Amino acid sequence: MGGGGIGRHLFFLSMDIELSIEALKSVLDNWDDVVYGILDSLMEEFVGMEKERLFEGADANGGMIEPDYTPFTRRIKISKGQPADRVTLFDTGRFHESLFAERSGGEVLFDATDSKRDKLVEKYGKDIFGLTDRQVDKARTMVNDRMSEYILSKMG
């Protein structure tokens, strides 16, 4: 049988490794842009997570949004068929629709454009914006999954 077979396999393995290194270098050359692009592509999903949190009545720290609604507000919410057992900051939907997330470097910032924004922050605190730790973990997994997909597509 000759020993040429082993040498040929090592040669092809060496070529595969060199190609992989070159592919990895091209991925890393613009890695910041890739990660920022991934974050940008997920902003709507992050805002959706924030809306879910608000509907559950939780602030970004995972505690309940306080103070509770007044008895008058509870009656109005019940008459509209809306939850009255927790503060959701949802009445007409304008505040929730105005929620947005934007990227500043690698950080995601949450805010709203609704005219009631400042009054709501004054009453309920700045933690009405953002994600809970559990949601941040989910968001981090989403980003990591997209990064892995990107790397695999380039290494392919």
Q: Please, could you describe this protein's structure?
A:
62% of the residues lie in helices and 8% in strands. The chain has a two-stranded antiparallel ribbon with strand order 1-2. The protein is built from 7 helices and 2 strands, in the order αααααββαα. With 156 residues, the chain is mostly helical. The protein has helices at residues 4-29, 31-41, 43-56, 71-79, 94-98, 117-124, 133-155, and strands at residues 99-104, 107-112. α2 crosses α7. A hairpin with a 2-residue loop joins β1 and β2. The radius of gyration is 24 Å and the shape is elongated. The protein has one domain (30-155).
Characteristics:
two-stranded antiparallel sheet, 2 strands, single chain, mainly alpha, 7 helices, 156 residues
Helices and strands, with pairings:
Elements: H1 4-29, H2 31-41, H3 43-56, H4 71-79, H5 94-98, E1 99-104, E2 107-112, H6 117-124, H7 133-155
Antiparallel strand pairs: 1-2
Helix pairs in contact: 2-7
